[in-house]
Amino acid sequence: MSDPLIPAPTGEPVRLKPLPLLIFSSRWLQLPLYVGLIVAQCVYVFLFIKELTHLVQHAWEFTEQQIMLVVLGLIDVVMISNLLVMVIVGGYETFVSRLGLKGHPDQPEWLSHVNAGVLKVKLAMAIIGISSIHLLRTFIEAGALGTPSGRVTEAGVLWQTIIHMAFIASAIGIAWVDRMTQTRH
């Protein structure tokens, strides 16, 4: 946990009063949430390995469309994992404590200028990417629309497209608001 002493403008540390100290320290309650997301990412790694093994074992039997659907599933897992990394690293850095990676060769480029606004835009873009993969999978499966083996309906395709467009509109709105607040400061 960080030191409850905050340097004063004169350079001498100032001891926080109990209530501000409690409020400031409450950010550490998010730590178990980020650890939980790391566990969730481990589950996604397991899922990726399971799906990849399934693809390799059945590559000779699968049609091109089946291979494409499995590969889209793998891409989906990777994109969700990327989203988890952004939330874990960016959220911890923004809301809990500095990671102290300055000058580290593996520091992600975006982390040097991360703030709540940048994180929201990056998350919105990641969600759009994930939604795009799901929509592409739906469009591929739409070839079986109306057949007994069809897993999607016309209404399902329509609603998924509308939701995807709502994600895009939301991302544009978030980016616009972030840009407006940047120009005002």
- What share of residues are in beta strands? under 5%
Oligomer: single chain
Structure annotation, total helices: 5
End-to-end CA span: 31 Å
Which stretches are low in confidence, meaning pLDDT under 50 for 5 or more residues running? none
What number of domains? Answer: 1
Order of helices and strands: EEHHHHH
- Quick one: overall form? elongated
Biggest β-sheet strands, sense, barrel = 2 strands, antiparallel
Helix proportion = 55-70%
The gyration radius over C-alpha positions equals: 22 Å
Assign the structural class, choosing from mainly alpha, mainly beta, alpha/beta, alpha+beta, or little secondary structure. Answer: mainly alpha
Spatial order of the strands forming the largest sheet = 1-2
Number of strand elements:
2
In round numbers, the mean pLDDT is: 86
Structure notes:
The chain is mainly alpha-helical and 185 residues long. It has one domain (5-184). Helices cover 68% and strands 3% of the residues. It contains five helices and two strands, in the order ββααααα. The protein has a two-stranded antiparallel sheet with strand order 1-2.
